[in-house]
Amino acid sequence: MFQVRIHGRGGQGAVTAAELLSVAAFVEGRHAQAFPSFGSERTGAPVMAFCRIDDRPIRVREPVTRPDALVVQDATLLHQVNVFEGLRPGGSVLVNSSCGADDLGLDGLAGPVVTVPATALALRYVGRPVPGAVLLGGLAALTRCVTIDSLAAAVQDRFPGPLGAANADAAREAYEHVEILLEERAHAEAD
């Protein structure tokens, strides 16, 4: 079972992102579940959402405490919440930031850590600072948990018309961004 924990702030779409990821898994004929965890239910407050994906029915219902991957929708949470708590050894981390992982002080983590300027991409494509779908594109490239085509289909189903197409295009650009970063790292490690 592949487990993802999404950290964000109220209003950033963390819950919607988890739902979109689960729908993308359904599109592929897999089993999935998505659900939120709220503390204070106000805009800007830290929130978490969870997604599980498996080829078999998922019976567990508790929050994801040992994620295989983390998505951090707001880099300021890195210093306010223990987002890395329970991350499996070698787990993947995706952070919404125009800075690199080294600049954020994340170069000491064991697994792959990638940053994507998701808010900037969302503003360019959608006109609003909603990084959820963009980050899922990056997550698809980083972890291969779903394909970019399944994700785009889920996004366009949830947001029909031009809004869905714009979000899907932003997710595809994030996917390509992460692909390029991973290729560059592979070449650097080979040298």
Structure report:
- This protein is of the alpha/beta class and about 190 residues long.
- The protein has one domain (about 1-190): Pyruvate-ferredoxin oxidoreductase, PFOR, domain III (Pyruvate-ferredoxin Oxidoreductase, domain 3).
- The protein is about 40% helix and about 20% strand.
- It has a six-stranded mixed sheet with strand order 2-3-1-4-5-6, covered by helices on one side.
- Strand 2 (about 30-40) and strand 3 form a beta hairpin.
- Helix 1 (about 15-25) packs across helix 4 (about 150-160), helix 2 crosses helix 3 and helix 2 packs antiparallel against helix 5.
- It is globular.
Short description:
The protein is α/β, with parallel strands linked by helices.
Throw out a few tags for this protein.
single chain; alpha/beta; Pyruvate-ferredoxin Oxidoreductase, domain 3
Q: Count of helical segments? A: 5
Count of individual beta strands? 6
C-alpha Rg, in Å? Answer: 15 Å
Q: Find the CATH topology.
A: Pyruvate-ferredoxin Oxidoreductase, domain 3
Share in β-strands: 15-25%
Uncertain regions spanning at least 5 consecutive residues: none
Order of helices and strands: EHEEEEEHHHH
CATH class: Alpha Beta
Helix residue percentage: 25-40%
The structural domain count equals 1
Terminal CA distance reads 34 Å
CATH architecture: 3-Layer(aba) Sandwich
Q: What is the overall pLDDT average?
A: 94
* Biggest sheet, spatial arrangement of strands: 2-3-1-4-5-6
